[in-house]
Specification:
With 108 residues, the protein is mostly beta strands. The protein contains 1 helix and 5 strands, in the order E-E-E-E-E-H. The termini are close together.
């Protein structure tokens, strides 16, 4: 997956959380942007349904002026390595993490 995507998770109690899954990209040997298997998770305040952004990121540079840990919209990072995933963060439940990981696996 090379495009950010809006997604909704649901907690065990039914609470819905709107997030943006933003892939962290790198340029391959031919200069094309490729997926690194690492995804930033951010709060999404829009009322739109889940959708795929139509334009890929045009850079590998971060477009934030503040570190993730100081960004109030930052929820964590999910990293895929050799078929398994890890989550770094403390704001998403295990149930929400599993939904996000499943979505990425099915849409990457």
């Amino acid at each position: 997956m090379i495009n950010p995507v809006a997604f909704k998770t649901s907690a065990d109690n039914g609470t819905v959380r709107k997030i943006i899954i933003e892939p962290i990209l790198k340029r391959d040997d031919s200069g094309e942007l490729t997926d690194t298997g690492v995804y930033r998770l951010l709060k999404n305040a829009t009322d739109n349904e889940s959708f795929l952004f139509t334009e890929p990121l045009e850079t590998t540079e971060s477009n934030t002026d503040i570190p993730d840990e100081l960004n109030p919209d930052y929820l964590g990072k999910i990293t895929f390595i050799d078929g398994s995933w890890t989550f770094k963060g403390d704001l998403l439940t295990e149930h929400e993490q599993q939904q996000i990981a499943g979505f990425i696996v099915n849409h990457a």
